[in-house]
Amino acid sequence: MGRVQGYVTQDVVRAARSVFWEHGFEGAALPVLEVATGLNRSSIYHAFGSKRGLFDAAVASYLDEVVRPRLRPLTLTAVAPHALATYLLGLRAALAEPASFTAVNGCLLLNAAGAPIARDAAVRDAVAAYRAELFAAFAAGVRARFPDEGEGGVERLAQACTALVVSALALTRVDNDSALRGLDGALALVEHGTRAQG
């Protein structure tokens, strides 16, 4: 009879996620991961195959538990006209709180995009898919906010909002004021539409 697993996998992944989020893949030393997860190296390798396998599980957890719940109102069949503004205001509030984990550490995936692990094709694909997911959600929000806007205008506004959000999440660790100003710019676009771009 096999040994009973003495830990909850989701709890382990969440603990590792915080370490990767704060320190990056390369900076997340195995001894630190062992302390955070409560597992020794052999248990981590047995459960996840490798440190990289644990990182992949952390990325999936980040998308499912952090990113997608915030985006959910923008992915419904009927998106409310204020859904994109609500998302942006919520993100701005998180980044404006100096002690918040997101303000201090930015975005797990965008941090990875600027690290050596981004040379890995699977990580590049994950970052690109994340950006595409943001764009699709923001486009739905723009359509709901400006139902008479043509698809060209929707795409321009959604691309601009995506770029400003990505920039804010990348900048917050080193220049929080600029990150907040970027989100203010996105909110202006959502308020005024293409008039804010002209």
Automatic annotation (TrEMBL):
UniProt domain HTH tetR-type: residue ranges: 6-66
Matches recorded under Pfam families: TetR_N (PF00440)
GO MF terms held by the record: DNA binding
Cross-referenced PROSITE patterns: HTH_TETR_2
Highest taxon in the source lineage: Bacteria
Keyword terms: DNA-binding, Transcription, Transcription regulation
DNA-binding region (UniProt annotation): 29-48
Protein name as annotated: Transcriptional regulator, TetR family
Top-level taxonomy: Bacteria, Bacillati, Actinomycetota, Actinomycetes, Micrococcales
